Amino acid sequence: MTKKKIAIQDTYGERFKHCWGCGSDNESGLHLKSYPSEDGKSCIAEIVPDDKYTGGVPQNLFGGMIAMLFDCHGTASAAYFKHRDKGLDLTEDTVIGRFITARLEINFKKPTPMAETVRIIAEPLEIGDRKVIVDMKMYAKEELRAVAKMVAVAVKDNM
């Protein structure tokens, strides 16, 4: 029996579905989707950026867009890693805990070409009570384009 793939962002609570980058309820948004790997040890997002996100160098993706992709994928991944660390499965009925970025470091390795699938892979480095540290790698055309490290923190109930 094949398990249905569930996007982490689709398990966000109603008040957290409005992000421009990954919110399902933002009509003009990008709607980035992050999925746990089969073994649950990583999370993967893929997107082919629209031409309007080109940078100052034609045919290359804008660096700010790269940061946004890491931001949205990283916080979704942190939420999933914490959820899994609690021994919980991701189901259609899940309302996952929400994480936000406390720190994001990016190293740009090579220009990221336009009109190509961009693949981001996230893995947990550390899972704490309220903090998850996530390591991410961005690929296009099977080549490493950028790496990032994120410190994500759980959203407090009164936020």
Explain what the structure shows.
The protein is an alpha+beta fold. It has one domain. Helix content is 14%, strand content 31%. A six-stranded antiparallel β-sheet has the order 1-2-4-5-6-3, with helices on one face. Strand 4 (118-127) and strand 5 form a beta hairpin. The longest helix is centred in the middle third of the chain and has 23 residues, at 63-85. The mean pLDDT is 93. It comes from Anaerococcus prevotii (strain ATCC 9321 / DSM 20548 / JCM 6508 / NCTC 11806 / PC1) (Peptostreptococcus prevotii). InterPro entries: HotDog_dom_sf, Thioestr_dom. This is Thioesterase superfamily protein. Residues 60-143 form the Thioesterase domain. It holds the Pfam family 4HBT.
Number of helices: 1
Number of domains: 1
Q: Structural class of the helix and strand makeup?
A: alpha+beta
Number of strands: 6
Strand content: 25-35%
- Terminal CA distance: 40 Å
pLDDT < 50 stretches: none
- Could you give the order of strands across the largest sheet? 1-2-4-5-6-3
- Helix and strand sequence: EEHEEEE
Largest sheet: 6 strands, antiparallel
Mean pLDDT: 93
Query: Radius of gyration in whole Å, from Cα?
Result: 15 Å
Helix content: 10-25%
Shape type = globular
What's the helix and strand layout?
Blueprint: E1 34-36, E2 43-47, H1 63-85, E3 99-108, E4 118-127, E5 131-140, E6 143-154
